Amino acid sequence: MPEETIKKFGRDLAQGLYYLHANNIIYADLKPSNVLMNEYNTLKLCDFGLSKKLNDLVKPEEVDATKPKSGTPYYMAPELFSDDGVYSFYSDMWALGCVLYELATGKPPFAATGLKDLITEICEKEVPEVEGFSPLFNDLIKRLLEKDPVKRIYWEHLRKHPFWAKEINQRKIPRQPQFDKYLKEHRDINPDEFHE
After folding, report:
1. Distance CA 113, CA 8 (A)
2. Residue 162: its pLDDT value, please?
3. CA torsion 181→185→188→194, rounded to 10°?
4. Candidates 12, 29, 47, 180; catalytic one
5. Residue 110 is inside which H or E element, if any?
6. CB 154 within 8 A of CB 93
7. Among 21, 120, 143, 184, which is disulfide-ready with 153 (CB 3.0 to 4.6 Å)?
8. In angstroms, rounded to a whole number, what is the distance separating the alpha carbons of residues 47 and 108?
9. How far apart are CA 118 and CA 74, in angstroms?
10. What is the rounded distance in angstroms from the CA atom of residue 39 to the CA atom of residue 50?
11. Would you call 192 a catalytic residue per the annotation?
């Protein structure tokens, strides 16, 4: 798919995710088969069966750390394969990077024949550069597919990324209580300082 088309489609996907995040929802299952196109060539998200409301994630009965995370492994962020990993807006960012990469190359950025090998690739292998695409596109992919969710690109930078050519309109993004808890308990990071 040409880069200009990916720019348009990617912007539609980013705006859809941004809207969900601003409304306290983690999509949790972004993948090509959950993206539809209308008659005006505008992309739309579908299948919200795995989506999570931020408030539901902090209810003790809703969170079971021993339960495997749901989703399609090819598009799941590395942190979701660890016991202490949590769904967050950052895991949706990872999936966005996977989908953009697949739009450019026709295949996901990480692939293997077995689940164990796939998890190893996702958690350890470097992000392959997309040949024939601009440095701006490759920079965006690299920042979306950052292994560490704490270092992964976030809305304030994603919406202004020069790949889009024009900023995505700003929305107010809520705090993520479960991700804040993860920062404090597993990363020894003060959530207030992280969100400044």
Report:
1. 32
2. 96
3. -10
4. 29
5. none
6. yes
7. 143
8. 20
9. 8
10. 27
11. no
